[in-house]
Amino acid sequence: MTHLGYLIAGWGISLVVLGGYGLRLARRGRSLSPLVPEDRRRWLASPGTDSD
Amino acid sequence: MAGRDERPGTTGSRGSRLLGCVALTCLAVLGVLAFVLTGPDVRIHPTTGEEFGQFDAVRMLYLHVPMAVLMYASFMLCAVASVGVLVKRTPWWDVMAHSAAEVGTVLCGLVLVTGSIWGRPVWNTWWEWGDVRLMTTLVLFLLFAGYLALRRTTTDPRRQERQAAVVALVAVLDIPLVNRSVAWWENRTLHQRSTLEELKIEDLTLFTLMFGFLTFGLVVWWLTLQRFRVGWLERAAIDHAVGSAMAERRSETSADELDAAIGVTDEQAGEASP
């Protein structure tokens, strides 16, 4: 296969960046969830509209 | 947007987990299609008989082209949501605009990087400053990087939302320039015209490219969904923190101190009480 190094670099960088970004989002979601009460942990409840 | 089966400690739902699994499966299938089942781009010159083409570098396009198209889609979604921010002024539109812009910027960066890596073996250059498409894409990346930087400033949130929406609407004006640059400035770009529009590819190559659109469409959908939910949780966390702090402050302050703070005298307080 020709240009193998370029292919590994292009596909590798893309998959690592997209995977890393997805992982970061999942971790951020996990760390934010405990800061919000259980009844308001769902994104269906608009922020600022629920009564505390 | 979510079912009833969310796990309380995550941003996942049954639907989003299924979407993620399908996207990962499609990525694996795309890898097989791109690297095993499709062949290299090799053509024979009609007069000299020499081989020419992109050879195996063509396999990069199954990744680069879908990401470029989905980058447009993400930025357009950001623009639509930004109009929603200016017209409706609800958090939903703002979180959606922010999410789409962030995902679009990640894609734009990857499009620039993969395009550069593909260009080295095919065009014999990593970067060409005179290429209109490269420059307009770089400008698009910088505009949305500026948008994301603006979102991190600590000014009045309402004002920041509106300013960011205006920046997004100005930034997307660059998209037609990026997309049409190969036609409008044909002599000032190394890029060729769209092979899809002119139907220069067919059979398994075309199928693999289309499958690439589907696969990266699912990946971008999942990422945007997760980013939206994180943005929503960030807002809910701030609202809850402010609400808790106010409630705590109220509980620390006695009724007499509260009356004094708002200028109610003892007599007025006595008259008001039953």
Characterise this structure:
The complex is a heterodimer of chains A (52) and B (274). Chain A has one helix spanning 4-32. Chain A has 52 residues and is mainly α. Chain B is mostly helical. Chain B has one domain (25-272). Chain B has nine helices and two strands. Chain B has helices at residues 14-37, 61-87, 91-123, 132-151, 157-171, 174-184, 203-252, 255-261, 266-272; strands at 41-44, 51-55. In chain B, strands 1-2 form a two-stranded antiparallel ribbon. The two termini of chain B are 49 Å apart. Classes of the chains: A mainly alpha (52), B mainly alpha (274). Chains A and B meet through α1 of A and α1, α2, α3 and α7 of B.
Q: Major beta sheet of chain A, specifics? A: none
Number of helices of chain A: 1
Q: Main sheet of chain B: which strands, in order across?
A: 1-2
Instruction: Tell me the quaternary state.
Output: heterodimer
- H/I helix tally of chain B: 9
Question: What sort of overall outline of chain A do the alpha carbons produce when their principal axes are compared?
Answer: rod-shaped
Helicity level of chain A, as a percent range? 55-70%
Q: Give the averaged pLDDT of chain B, no decimals.
A: 87
Integer average pLDDT of chain A: 81
The SSE order of chain A reads: H
SSE arrangement:
The complex is a heterodimer of chains A (52) and B (274).
Chain A: H1 4-32
Chain B: H1 14-37, E1 41-44, E2 51-55, H2 61-87, H3 91-123, H4 132-151, H5 157-171, H6 174-184, H7 203-252, H8 255-261, H9 266-272
Antiparallel strand pairs in B: 1-2
Helix pairs in contact in B: 1-7, 2-3, 2-5, 2-7, 3-4, 3-7, 4-5, 4-6
Entry keywords:
heterodimer, A: 52 residues, mainly alpha, 1 helix, 56% helix, disordered C terminus, B: 274 residues, two-stranded antiparallel ribbon, 9 helices
Task: Briefly summarize what is shown.
The complex is a heterodimer of chains A (52) and B (274). Chain A has 52 residues and is mainly alpha-helical. Chain A contains 1 helix and no strands.
